[in-house]
Amino acid sequence: MAQSYLIIDGYNLMHAAGMARHKYGPGDLERCRKRVLHFLSQHLSAAERARTTVVFDAADAPPGFPRTAVLEQMEILFAPRGGDADTVIEELIEQHFAPRQIRLVSSDHRLQKAARRRRAKFVDSELFVEQLEDRAAKRADSAGRQEPAIPEQKVTGRTSRDEIAEWLEIFGDIPEAAELATDNERLQNELDAWAKEAEDELG
């Protein structure tokens, strides 16, 4: 099954996810952008992030930030100065080599119309947020229901040196414990030597 190329209307998604503000003080908008990008990085798989482009308006772009950047495998685009994200997204849809594999994330009807013209898929930002959160909840629920795996242990019939050390740590204050551990290790060494001799004779 072909994977989708996600083209995300950044500020539109930021509002849909409840991460935007009515008024922005110094640095607030940049912090909100980081929150929405962090949300995407946590909820999209590595394969999805590698096929994701997030587009923001040029207004209030971070000082010195390049127009194009890569963050957590996602391509981040800022519209050119004087332009807007909608125009950039329309161009991306129009010029994409596989438009039917596009999945546009935006509630903007103008952009949805542009996607429809090229037979690309689209989803409202609010629904997209719900889908990602539902998927994350199902994964967490599934992981919680799985019983912890019991480590597979090789049964050899011998007491390991780690086990002997553990015995000494627990029962070290009992004089017989050290003697028992030493006797056990000596006996085990004798058994190992006997097994090696038997193996050599058979070989």
Question: Notable features of this structure?
Answer:
single chain, elongated, 203 residues, 8 helices, alpha/beta
Low-confidence stretches: 153-157
- CATH class category name of the largest domain: Alpha Beta
Range of strand content: 5-15%
Strand order of the largest sheet: 3-4-2-1-5-6
Helix/strand-derived class?
alpha/beta
Tally of distinct domains:
2
User: At the third CATH level, what is the topology name of the largest domain?
Assistant: Rossmann fold
Reported for the largest beta sheet, the result is:
6 strands, mixed
Let me know the average pLDDT.
Answer: 82
Between the first and last Cα atoms, what is the distance in angstroms?
Answer: 55 Å
The 3D shape can be described as: elongated
The count of β-strands is 6
Summarize the helix and strand pattern as letters: EHHHEEEHEHEHHH
Task: Explain the overall architecture.
This protein is of the alpha/beta class. It has 2 domains: 139 residues, Rossmann fold (3-Layer(aba) Sandwich), CATH 3.40.50; 42 residues, no CATH class. Helices cover 53% and strands 13% of the residues. The chain is built from 8 helices and 6 strands; from the N terminus they run βαααβββαβαβααα. The protein has a 6-stranded mixed sheet with strand order 3-4-2-1-5-6. Strand 5, helix 5 and strand 6 form a beta-alpha-beta unit. Helix 1 crosses helix 2 and helix 4 runs parallel beside helix 5. It is elongated and about 85 Å long. The two termini are 55 Å apart.
